[in-house]
Batch of 2 targets.
Target 1
Amino acid sequence: MNKDTIKIGLLGFGTVGAGVYQILTQNGNDIKRKLGVKIEVKRIVVRNLNKPRALAADRELFTDTIDHVLLDPEIDIVVETMGGIEEAHRAIASALEHDKFVVTANKDLMAQHGVELLKIAKEQEKNIFYEASAGGGIPLIRPLKNCLAANRIVKIMGIINGTTNYILTKMSCENMEYETALAEAQAKGFAEANPASDLEGRDAAYKLNIMASLAFSSRIKMDDIHVEGITEVKLRDIRYAQELGYAIKLLAIGEEKQEGLSLRVHPTLIPQAHPLAAVKNEFNAVFLEGDAVGEVMLYGRGAGALPTGSAVCGDIMEAARVIKNEVKNGIIESTFTEKDIIPLAEQFSRFYLRLKAQDEPGVFAQLAAAFGNAKVSLDRIIQKRSVEKTAEIVLVTHDVKEGNFMQALSSLRSMPTIRSINSVLRVVE
Amino acid sequence: MNKDTIKIGLLGFGTVGAGVYQILTQNGNDIKRKLGVKIEVKRIVVRNLNKPRALAADRELFTDTIDHVLLDPEIDIVVETMGGIEEAHRAIASALEHDKFVVTANKDLMAQHGVELLKIAKEQEKNIFYEASAGGGIPLIRPLKNCLAANRIVKIMGIINGTTNYILTKMSCENMEYETALAEAQAKGFAEANPASDLEGRDAAYKLNIMASLAFSSRIKMDDIHVEGITEVKLRDIRYAQELGYAIKLLAIGEEKQEGLSLRVHPTLIPQAHPLAAVKNEFNAVFLEGDAVGEVMLYGRGAGALPTGSAVCGDIMEAARVIKNEVKNGIIESTFTEKDIIPLAEQFSRFYLRLKAQDEPGVFAQLAAAFGNAKVSLDRIIQKRSVEKTAEIVLVTHDVKEGNFMQALSSLRSMPTIRSINSVLRVVE
């Protein structure tokens, strides 16, 4: 194709959309030199034309009519940065049907409708690029699809939500309570006004879905992932964890075992010496274990205008290269096989438990019996001097079946000498 | 192409070659499912047919005649794992001319002749894949070429030699002297019998050349890189560095500044809190800074049969996909521009200096004057109680021009009260 310019239409001009525009503008010459073709933003679709924008872009570019992009035959690439599900879904499907390549950073959408959209892309001999959807600026999708493709991936374990990692870092390093840390994260722009999807682990679960689908070549449904957020993590638990040599991080974990896949997002105690324990503040990192490569870690910024924009622009450049060079059949297709999901009750884990018990003779024997009856063996116990006849006890179990642990927990709950079960967290060694 | 098998010829069956064979065998079914085509090793070229091999492969596969691979029209991909320069160079050029794709892990060759070989590949409408050449199993080449392509890369800084990192880790964490640590590295197989290229920094310089050429889109010559190894690093300096809050690592550093590129490999003091300081033993990591993405770190095993084999097999799969799908023009070409190299004397750095001086009045004033005259300002000074009228002094300068520091150093050398200059190291904050 002898084009000297490839034109894109930008859907949305929020944080990521504006970041993409800024990078294409500021690095335009370098990008043109690398590609041999200029990338031009032809239209930007926004909901409200009159909204004031932090970043200046030519007013002429803006439109509130999405068909100005979807139906424009001059536009080769549609870049979806509007977020949300339904509207974005329709827009991407329509863009593909109008013979356009698509680049998106939309994790919710790719996690829930990725398989179906990629199928439309294939039928249209187009493609959807979504590097930014799993790790923001961190290279993840291509390393999984290409560089590590010859490996059987055994495990993915990542800190893939910046908001929660920022909050846990503040709690752990500056002794802040959860609420204070959340307020600071919001003030600094690391947490949204409505941070529920981040705090409750859903954002991390979407990203895990995208990564695990590629890593394990399996079509994963959101229901396959057990999700717990950080809303119940107490400063007190972080302190006890530190005493035991652990840090608490919100981890997204995917493992392939003989019996199937284990997929979960939950706050986790990890050894302080683990590379993920050193990932602080808004930084993200994904730890991969392949049967050939061993351990690999990819670290960087998982969110933000320019980091996410960096991945989106890398995708735009790839799409532009495909168009310019008329690459045929260059798409790396993922083959999916259905794999079993191991039910949560059948999964193995170590558990951390904090409870309050009456400080009287025989209580510990009752506790021990409850665990013993459920075949849960204990690894470590901390009991501090009791206050007002109440002892706070912290226990760490050996690796046990989740169902067995829950059975022990339910016997404890029915014991009159146990005042309260305050925290239950999982431990990864 | 309706092939159901793509055949490869393996040149060399040492550590990496055997690793490649093992991965293709053990993960063969998965690889076939992902690609839709089987990868078969058709021939393995070795120098000595009778050498006993740790890994069993069908005797029929082996040949000592390289033309059995290069001239076999059934072989689509030549995988070069023999190492060395001249013979590998001829083999790769000939493979391309015989219409084969090439995969190589040969850093020495790619650093010295990569540009020329990639040119032949382009003329032949073939390609050379070399992911394993820079970071072993760590994804580096594709992230640089694709994911981060829209960034202006400002800095690359990496621990890209496992042997030296293993030795420095042992010195630092287990108080071993250099010679003892080297002997242990050799015993454990982390250092070769002749480890000169690793210890003297040349291995890291080759890898820096490959990465920096891509990151800065510039054709870099080996002479452009200032190279110092770890042979002069003393346990004593590691201890002083720790006291000052630093770790000592052999870093490969590439930076693009207004005046040009700065490229160097040398032992470096970095703050203990820097993510690279936590990279221990034989692990490698590369820290990248892009104007959009900010800081990214890629961490993993930079050497070894299976980690390097992982990257080589990823490349084989990419080549196989190109062949199977008859991808045309799918090659990502690197465009190179000539960039200036900043002469070492013009580069800025902080310096660490350890020296012995006569312990008598006025010596410190002389020292201070020597630095002052050369416009070198001092940041930190350690002087311990002197022994036999000799004081050991450790200094860390502010950021100064290398030429100025060297001028100060040369005045010190001519001062009769300075007994010895024991160590000069650079510091990166």
Note: Chain B touches chain A through 61 residues (CB under 8 Å).
Target 2
Amino acid sequence: MAADEMERVVLVRHIDGMPTPDDFRIERLAIPDLAEGQFLAKNHFVSCDPGTRSRLSPGASYAPPLPPGAPVDGFCVGEVIASRNDRFAVGDHVALSGWATHVVSNGRGYCLKLPDLDVPEQLWIGLLGVPGMTAWFGLKRVAQFKAGERVLVTSAAGPVGATAGQLAGLWGASEVIGIAGGPVKCQWLRDIGFTTAIDYKAADFEAQFAVAAAGGFDVMFDNVGNALIDRALPHMKLRGRIVVSGQVADYNTPNDAIPGLHNTREFIGRRLRMEGMVVFDDLPGFAAAQAELAGLIKAGSVQYREEIFDGLARLPEAFCGLFTGQSFGRRLIRV
Amino acid sequence: MAADEMERVVLVRHIDGMPTPDDFRIERLAIPDLAEGQFLAKNHFVSCDPGTRSRLSPGASYAPPLPPGAPVDGFCVGEVIASRNDRFAVGDHVALSGWATHVVSNGRGYCLKLPDLDVPEQLWIGLLGVPGMTAWFGLKRVAQFKAGERVLVTSAAGPVGATAGQLAGLWGASEVIGIAGGPVKCQWLRDIGFTTAIDYKAADFEAQFAVAAAGGFDVMFDNVGNALIDRALPHMKLRGRIVVSGQVADYNTPNDAIPGLHNTREFIGRRLRMEGMVVFDDLPGFAAAQAELAGLIKAGSVQYREEIFDGLARLPEAFCGLFTGQSFGRRLIRV
């Protein structure tokens, strides 16, 4: 690739069901000239987020669907290398949006000039980015979590779930129960402070879940989808809250094949509240939460895992692996 | 029945599916002697509430299930005719609980000494009782309804739904859409101020619903159950709220046969909130709400219908009719 060129990931076709790497292609193009007010960032890391899946099929989600041929959005972190924007200078570190080696931005939309919190820069698209902020505001704003409550977290070894579980513990949860796939992930959850970790792939999952559920859940922080929510509903405590943070098991499923919620009788008797969230609603609170969370990370109180893939060309493969249960930690592409 | 006797309705067996009158029997017994602190009320009216159904099957709801042979609870209004309780004097008008001609109470539990608001006394188990308070606090506390919002109400010709729809209109809803069964109920809804009334029994229900849904709903006040909620989910607006107030279509259905909620993808994108309610949580606010609502009723701003059956013996028949769509207004038994 020449110095005046960039690469980006483009959607080949609308996706029906599970995404595969050939649903994407890498496009090379000349870096466009900067207009007044724009700057150019060179990315260091690009992230894979399950939420991106929802824009790759027809039908509106929280953002409109991408047309085939369009470049795909995803979070990235890098450095300004040219600028015609007063607020962004060459050398500034920024978090932006774009599955690409370079991003041209006018500073609007999701565009964050990174303060110096003395953390690895990729954390800005990890625990200090959407996954960590989702955990933070999902517990604080949506669940209205209070010390002494018992918390169930699904996809608990993922970056959102692991952060939510650790924060719940730090903020005084009586117990934190995580559901994850496989003994390695479950052991890690125990290592980082989950009270209980349940392996959904284990033969005795039902029995393990029944034991954990006997104590009831004040908060369910769900990243998976309806099947686990329906299972948890009869075990929610009075005034329990279900945070619909992600639906990784349902993103690839047509609506009429998504498992139904049937145990809804519980909503009235137990005064349950189920609420969906998009963390960008909490943008005004990000800076304060990021500073506090960075402190917890540096103190070792909140831990995380990363899986780093080298080269933008591996992004489609890394993204598709999010939906097969094989990922373990924050998936990042080092550009 | 001798002057020292009373009658009450007793559950014969746990009910599986639709209730029938022979699931109940009328039991005659001697009025018990009053212990210190108790009083005796003679009922004038007893009410039929769909919510009572949830306690007639095994399995806990917001209250534990009744055992076969137990007297059934239901709201009633009457007059104190004997008292050994300092707070309740002979002649006081009271609202209590019990499907019976007489109630012995110690003044605890659901027991309201009625203020003189110059309204027909049966309103205290109607719009000034559980149905009206459910509408009031469902909109105010649970839905956090705001002027300018568009509201969908199901079972809209029932006492909860009709009151909720009228209150939404009085409080500044941009439009109030009601779903009810049959042209007579729908015409009544239009007469009392609903913007639109949709007949779920009509051949063109789908088309009517599609027209109404095109404008989106900020609030769905649901008294019916999952089938209508699932239908409404894709039409909820950003930050829409679904109040789970009643589930009359699902009460008689085993959990695994309750229609599932499948359109749950909308929860995240639209930040939907679905919350169940039991109006007794709002007891501290009842008196103020009742005074205000009584004023609206006397001014003719909130209207209601009643279906009055004479004699406790007709209570089982009147109750079972709640689930067949034949009731139209508040069903009351004049004792």
Note: Chain B has a mean pLDDT of 94.
